[in-house]
Amino acid sequence: MRDTVRAPEPDPRHTPGGPPPGAAPPHPGAVGPGPGTGAPGAGAGLSGAAPGTAPASAATGRLGEAGPVDTLAFVESPVQFLNVLEWAYTSALHPATRRPPGTAGAAPGGGGSGGPGSEGSGAAGSMSAESGPGAPDSASSASSGLPASLPGRPGSHGTGTGTGPGHGTGTGSAGAPAVPPMTVVVLPPVDPMTRGQLRRVAELARDEGHTVQWAEARGGAAPLKTVGALARPLRRASRVVIGDPFSRYVQLLLTLTTAPEVVVVDDGTATMEFVQQLARGERLTRWHRSGSGGPGAALFAPVSRRARSRLTPSGSRRVEIFSSMPVEKAVAELGVTAGVNDFAWTRARFGPPRLTGGTDLVGTSLVETGVVDLDRYLQAVRSLARTHGATRYFAHRRESTEKLHRVTEETGMEIVRPDLPLELVARRGPIGRTILSFPSTVVHTLPLALAGTPVQVAVCDIDPAWLTDSASPRAQGFLSGVTTTAPAVTRLPHTR
Fold this sequence. Notes:
The chain is an alpha/beta fold. The protein has helices spanning about 80-95, 190-205, 220-235, 250-255, 270-280, 295-310, 330-335, 345-350, 375-390, 400-410, 420-430, 440-450, 475-485, and strands spanning about 1-5, 30, 70-75, 125-130, 160-165, 170, 185, 210-215, 240, 260-265, 320-325, 335-340, 360, 390-395, 415, 435, 455-460, 490. α1 (about 80-95) runs parallel beside α2 (about 190-205). The longest helix is centred in the middle third of the chain and has 17 residues, at about 295-310. It is globular, with a radius of gyration of 22 Å.
């Protein structure tokens, strides 16, 4: 395979002389047939700064230096990060529905001085503000605002004025909500594809006025340092937003907060399983995991139980699940507030996309997680490509290079490694008029992100014969549920 870089599609909202929204190649890691390899996820910074450098308007800050933290968000994946931005945008559209218990008339994001945009604390070396995509992991603290020429950005144009929490009075874009700033702490995993996507979404977050802190949280003494750095901000936060309630790291952090409001945003289809387990009072376990979790799970059980209590509403704590999944009924029965993620921010900031007229196939990491047999999966991919004329394969960030080599060798499809979540990639374009997928998050999210376009999303069910011997007994039922609850997709028969 070889890596190629595509030029960005022109954005119809781009003001001449100013940078386009999210100025970056839509698919900076497209991999086609042929020898050689390349580094996925590389590309110019979204703010226009050279890779590895901070934007000219960068500001610095550490968690906890001044004032109370209002909204503190933790993300470990690009999808979680995107959904945190969607939540913040929707919160600004409907502020009255998002007040912590015991508050009256307080806008989301709090008020007064020392808003989260100027917050920061942490042990030296354990946390910093990322300086942009392509920056070294030890990048110095930096954050930046978006140039005023970008339509849709509060303060970019129009005459409306509003009071931002902790930021005085500012000018608002006509028709665009003034999104309250928050502090987003990125807890990156070790794989380079995920880290690259997280850096790119971090740039978008800074463009929205949020502070982003990059916390190296894996390996050696890093976890202890990071938890120590976050303890004080967690105690002072009035709202905590998380993206993965199954994460032991996040569960540990939840035990350190007494925030009156906790928000859970989607981490893909896992939200459906989380809601069901919460309703049944079960131990939080990922759907594809088998067994009891071993001695480690038993030792961690007290922490997990306490974290689960933080995810249960009470007279002094409001819990919201902000989701694009069909969980409203189950959430209501729990007394949890249901927030609907319809990807309003994505649609407001990007697109509509240019359509290629062809068919794209979205890959899955079900092989890598041990759920689906590799040879059966490749057979299904060959059949879909042949039957529907698919020419591009959008790789999941966790798919192995070896598997992608086989996909391109056996089908001739071009392998595209997106450096942003697929919802953003599709909305920015170019994208096929038909998108094929196996059961996954995108069968729920892409129809929302692409609302108003003629793009059709079709899903191919997982044949039970494709499952590995080690797959969880819950796997087939869970995957089937992902498909049957997706209202805006076409279901395809099993491939042979």
